[in-house]
């Protein structure tokens, strides 16, 4: 594996240049051990197609999404305005995110606060790269494999993007099997609304167990996700049913990177 | 002559009573805070045509959707017949629109088929609620009045349609006998199936029955109209404005509080120019119905308690206390209580109660995943999630009563710019790790 090339905005600034796109890594993608692999897969794809991109590195902070969904509008707007200052300072025009929550917040909630950018989710970027011929995808190890895609709420229902991740999976010559609750009817993994950071209220089942059960009923080889929080939740769910040896949970970007031996 | 006077009095009283009660609901809705939904009128008309008039989200669940369209089409189209009934009632005429000839026959025949459709739809709905007992109709929040309300509506509609068909059948029999003013008018494909039942009756009995059904049908409609303001069935009126004024932004775009923006601007830059704070102290988030917007209050009166939101809510489906349907029902019930308070006292007198606490508990609010399954499922674009979020904002920003784990998350974001306890200096470490 070749060394990752991860320039920062500050690096570009020092050279007096500007990258084509900013890769907003997100907190999970920066700190969570499993999510870091997704981040690296995205970087491998970006390196592979030679896109001029940069990350903010230590200048990136939480978008404020979990604070906002938990009702802490103050903290959200503090985070948002500080981030907007940084982003506008670098004259950022286009952002790709590794997380649907960052994607949603920057795309939909920053403009009113002065942060107006073209924001896309990493699955949308991958689809654009495939469509423009910059990225060639063949099935590789996923050819003929049974895949079930779990829609992230903040990509799907929140922003009506159901096709990009599916189009990519289909490019892998894999067999995409839809759960009964998919697309607009998709069931949350249980992490949204700041649930990721607290214990669930009393009930008779964990949401991620309910969702993983539904996904496992499809007998997939891979449960594909597009969100680092879904990744955590679905992996925990698969472990709950002791299926981690048989069923992989992978981000769509990881599947592309693997299929291309990146 | 006497019957014309009685009819006119009933019609005017019924109309006035409905106007009064509907006005109260309008007043209650307008207790809500301002929110601008006057933009994009062409897009809003399109949305209303598709979702409310076209029932596009109803058919996502095909059985309920198709049955509902039967009822809806029946209700809207058969009400054309009411125009004739009202004219006949006031002027003492009989089937005054029959001069339209063939077209009149076509209309009456269509009404009959639609009436049959309504009866079929109501029976299917009644069976789903009371025999099959679908899960979403068995929830605790429907215990008592809401469940009875649903059944009263279905039974009333069956009675009204039956009266309409019996009226037509007896009228038709009198027509064939050439009795009195029963001129040959109309076409009766459905009600004529009832002929064997009434065929042997005397002419007097037929007239009694025909008149009886006519009066029952129209008084029933006027009574039903006045039942609406006390019932979930009010949705037949509010569904249209509720869809028209629905949120057009992506579902993921939550409202940014302007009051907070101004304060944050001052915190980041003491010299920033922001509008001066209002006289009354700012309140962040919502504690009671008056803190919600008029659209949220309209949503509460529009909800017909179908429970599609609740049946798609991940929290509810895994046994948590949260039910998005209950959130809107609670909002409506509290608003009704506030309305009665205003009726009694002239203006609202603090009753020591609030939506948050007395109706909706913190446990319900903290179970929400903000996943938008509820708003997606709602056939008329109602938004229980926005109510949940406003109440959460009050809990956090006014009451400082978030779960401890969330407070820890807030502290982490404040101190190290991430919801977990990692050093911001380590943010790029992944790039050089194996």
What does this structure look like?
The complex is a heterodimer of chains A (262) and B (434). By secondary structure, chain A is of the alpha/beta class. In chain A, 42% of the residues lie in helices and 11% in strands. In chain A, the strands form two sheets. Chain A has a four-stranded parallel beta sheet. Chain A has a four-stranded parallel beta sheet with strand order 6-5-7-8, with helices on both faces. In chain A, α3 packs across α11. The model of chain A has no long low-confidence stretch (mean pLDDT 97). By secondary structure, chain B is mainly α. Chain B folds into two domains: 213 residues; 159 residues, Fumarate Reductase Iron-sulfur Protein, Chain B, domain 2. In chain B, α1 runs parallel beside α7 and α4 packs antiparallel against α5. Chain B starts with a helix and ends in an 18-residue tail after the last helix. At the A-B interface, α2, α3, α4, α5 and α6 of A face α9, α12, α16, α17 and α18 of B.
Give a nutshell description of this structure.
The complex is a heterodimer of chains A (about 260) and B (about 425). Chain A is of the alpha/beta class and about 260 residues long. Chain A has helices at about 10-15, 25-30, 35-50, 65-70, 75-90, 100-110, 120-130, 165-170, 205-215, 230-240, 250-260, and strands spanning about 20-25, 55, 95, 120, 145-150, 175, 220-225, 250.
Give keywords.
heterodimer; A: 262 residues; alpha/beta; Rossmann fold; four-stranded parallel beta sheet; 11 helices; 11% strand; B: 434 residues; mainly alpha; Fumarate Reductase Iron-sulfur Protein, Chain B, domain 2; elongated
Secondary structure layout:
The complex is a heterodimer of chains A (262) and B (434).
Chain A: H1 9-15, E1 21-24, H2 27-31, H3 33-48, E2 53-54, H4 65-69, H5 73-89, E3 94-97, H6 100-109, E4 118-121, H7 122-131, E5 146-149, H8 163-171, E6 175-176, H9 207-216, E7 222-225, H10 228-240, E8 248-251, H11 252-259
Chain B: H1 2-29, H2 41-53, H3 62-91, H4 102-130, H5 145-177, H6 195-198, H7 203-227, H8 235-244, H9 258-268, H10 294-302, H11 308-312, H12 314-317, H13 324-345, H14 355-359, H15 362-366, H16 373-377, H17 384-398, H18 404-416
């Amino acid at each position: 594996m070749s060394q990752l090339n991860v320039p920062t905005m500050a690096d570009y600034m020092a050279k007096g240049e500007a990258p084509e796109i900013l890769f907003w890594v997100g907190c999970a993608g920066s700190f969570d051990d499993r999510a870091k692999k997704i981040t690296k897969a995205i970087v491998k794809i970006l390196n592979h197609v030679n896109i001029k991109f940069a990350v903010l590195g230590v200048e990136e902070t939480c978008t404020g999404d979990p604070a906002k969904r938990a009702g802490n509008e103050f903290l959200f707007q503090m985070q948002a305005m500080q981030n907007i200052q940084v982003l506008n300072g670098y004259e950022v025009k286009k952002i790709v995110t590794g997380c649907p929550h960052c994607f949603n917040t920057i795309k939909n909630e920053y403009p009113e606060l002065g942060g107006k950018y073209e924001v896309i989710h990493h699955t949308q970027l991958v689809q654009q790269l495939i469509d423009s011929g910059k990225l060639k995808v063949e099935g590789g190890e996923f050819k003929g494999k049974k895949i079930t895609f779990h829609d992230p709420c903040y990509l799907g229902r929140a922003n009506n993007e159901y096709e990009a991740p599916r189009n990519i999976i289909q490019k892998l010559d894999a067999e995409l099997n839809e759960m009964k609750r998919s697309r607009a009817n998709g069931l949350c993994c249980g992490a949204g609304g700041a649930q990721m950071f607290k214990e669930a209220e009393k009930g008779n089942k964990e949401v991620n167990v309910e969702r993983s059960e539904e996904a496992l009923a499809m007998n997939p080889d891979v449960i594909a996700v597009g969100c680092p929080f879904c990744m955590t939740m679905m992996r925990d769910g698969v472990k709950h049913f002791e299926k981690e040896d048989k069923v992989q949970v992978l981000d769509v970007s990881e599947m592309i990177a693997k299929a291309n031996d990146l | 002559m006497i019957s014309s006077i009685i009819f006119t009095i009933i019609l005017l009283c019924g109309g006035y009573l409905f106007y009064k009660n509907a006005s109260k609901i309008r007043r209650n809705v307008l207790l809500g805070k301002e929110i601008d939904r006057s933009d994009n009128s062409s897009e809003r008309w399109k949305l209303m045509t598709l979702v409310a008039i076209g029932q596009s989200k109803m058919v996502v669940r095909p059985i309920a959707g198709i049955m509902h369209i039967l009822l809806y089409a029946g209700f809207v189209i058969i009400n054309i017949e009411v125009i004739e009934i009202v004219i006949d009632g006031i002027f003492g005429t009989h089937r005054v629109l029959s001069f339209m000839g063939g077209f009149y026959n076509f209309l009456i025949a269509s009404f009959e088929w639609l009436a049959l459709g309504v009866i079929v739809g109501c029976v299917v709905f009644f069976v789903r609620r009371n025999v099959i007992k679908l899960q979403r109709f068995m929830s605790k929040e429907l215990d008592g009045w809401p469940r009875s309300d649903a059944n009263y509506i279905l039974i009333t509609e069956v009675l009204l349609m039956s009266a309409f068909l019996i009226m037509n059948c007896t009228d038709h029999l009198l027509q064939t006998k050439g009795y009195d003013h029963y001129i040959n008018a109309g076409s009766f494909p459905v009600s004529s199936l009832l002929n064997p039942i009434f065929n042997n009756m005397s002419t007097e009995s037929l007239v009694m029955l025909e008149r009886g059904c006519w009066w029952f049908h129209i008084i029933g409609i006027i009574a039903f109209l006045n039942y609406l303001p006390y019932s979930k069935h009010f949705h037949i009126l509010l569904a249209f404005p509720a869809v028209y004024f629905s949120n057009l932004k992506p579902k993921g775009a939550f409202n940014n509080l302007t009051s907070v923006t101004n304060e944050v601007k001052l915190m980041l830059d003491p010299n920033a120019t922001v509008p001066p704070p209002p006289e009354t102290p700012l309140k962040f988030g919502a504690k009671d119905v008056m803190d919600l917007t008029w659209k949220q209050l309209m949503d509460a009166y529009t909800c017909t308690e179908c429970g599609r939101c609740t049946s798609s809510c991940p929290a509810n489906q895994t046994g948590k206390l949260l039910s998005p349907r209950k959130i809107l029902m609670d909002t409506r019930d509290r608003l009704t209580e506030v309305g009665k308070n205003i009726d009694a006292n002239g203006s609202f007198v603090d009753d020591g109660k609030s939506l948050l606490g007395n109706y909706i508990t913190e446990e319900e609010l903290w179970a929400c995943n903000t996943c938008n399954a509820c708003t997606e499922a709602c056939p008329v674009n109602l938004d229980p999630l926005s109510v949940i979020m406003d109440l959460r904002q009050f809990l956090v920003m006014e009451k400082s009563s978030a779960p401890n784990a969330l407070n820890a998350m807030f502290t982490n974001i404040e101190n190290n710019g991430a919801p977990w306890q990692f050093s911001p200096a380590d943010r790029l470490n992944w790039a050089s790790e194996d």
